[in-house]
Amino acid sequence: MTSLPIENVQAYPRPPRLEPVTEPLTIYLDDRQIAQTTRGYRVLETHHAPSYYFPPDDVADVLRTVTGSSVCEWKGVARYFDVEGERHLVRRAAWCYEHPSGPFAPIAGYLAFYAARMQRCLVGDIEVLPQPGDFYGGWVTPNLRGQIKGASGTRHW
């Protein structure tokens, strides 16, 4: 049974911090495991649930590149992917930073997934909830405390 330490999202740093993840990370779509790693990273940022990143070698051949991008003031330009399951094509469900800025260089090409758009996402054996709202991609685990950004009225603080 996975046990995660209690963390307060309000105590996470700004600018954000990148750290390796010691627990296995797993994603399912259409009853199929599409990603699993023990070499993941997470980004911790004030008032955010952590975003988890998978090395591309640990993700099945389910990604389809789409047009468009976004810019993170800390990590740089993100590009997006549709995720193709056995029964569903999930639009813009994953992203990566091909050339992230300085402290985030270790996640170049690594992939992050919106938990709300996948069937199941796990940290160890703990099933995550998606970060509130439709913009941020954090994974909420039961050990997190504090107000997590993303719900109505919180996006721009």
In short:
By secondary structure, this protein is mainly β. 0% of the residues lie in helices and 42% in strands.
Walk me through this protein's architecture.
This protein has one domain (7-144): Domain of unknown function (DUF427) (Metal Binding Protein, Guanine Nucleotide Exchange Factor, Chain A, Beta Complex), CATH 2.170.150. The protein is built from no helices and 15 strands. The protein has strands spanning 7-8, 17-20, 25-29, 32-37, 41-44, 51-53, 63-72, 76-84, 89-96, 111-113, 120-123, 126-127, 129-130, 139-140, 144-145. The strands form five sheets. Strands 4-3-11-12 form a four-stranded antiparallel sheet, with no helix packed on it. It is globular and about 40 Å long. The mean pLDDT is 95.
The dominant shape is globular
The percentage helix is under 10%
Question: How far apart lie the N and C ends?
Answer: 35 Å
Oligomer category: single chain
| Structural class by sheet pairing and helices | mainly beta
Unreliable segments (pLDDT under 50, ≥5 consecutive)?
none
**Average pLDDT level:** 95
Count the E strands: 15
Proper CATH architecture: Beta Complex
Radius of gyration: 15 Å
Major sheet description = 4 strands, antiparallel
Strand order of the largest sheet: 4-3-11-12
Number of domains: 1
Q: What is the CATH fold-level name?
A: Metal Binding Protein, Guanine Nucleotide Exchange Factor, Chain A
- CATH superfamily name? Domain of unknown function (DUF427)
